[in-house]
Description:
The chain has helices at 12-24, 35-43, 63-71, 90-97, 109-122, and strands at residues 4-8, 28-32, 51-55, 81-85, 101-104. With 123 residues, the protein is α/β, with parallel strands linked by helices. Strand 3 (51-55), helix 3 (63-71) and strand 4 (81-85) form a beta-alpha-beta unit. Helix 2 (35-43) packs parallel to helix 3.
Amino acid sequence: MGSRVLVAEDDAAIRDSLGEILEDAGDDAVGACNGRQALEILGAPGPRPALILLDMTMPVMDGAAFRTAQRATAGRAEIPVIVFSADRDLSRIFDALHVQGVFHKPLPLAELLATIARFCRAA
């Protein structure tokens, strides 16, 4: 079995599609519809994700607030994060949130999968 990947995305169709793609690639995908739910998943017992795929624009708790909370919590801070967003200024996001990668929506699937594999296989 592959690595566990947390997909934090409020759009159910995107979240479910990414989950299916990850599972087809041999990884275990778990979804969250907002940042607060993603933090709850990280705090729950069970295997820790090797990687987090994070949408920036979500209700309840957005990607930036999630990332701030994740980085402030021991045992969660070191989990790599790949951000995806419709925002065109992704360099600002990359620098401000200290993430390992950023992708524009719509997602370039082959490049995203290669990035996921790089982080998950290293975990």
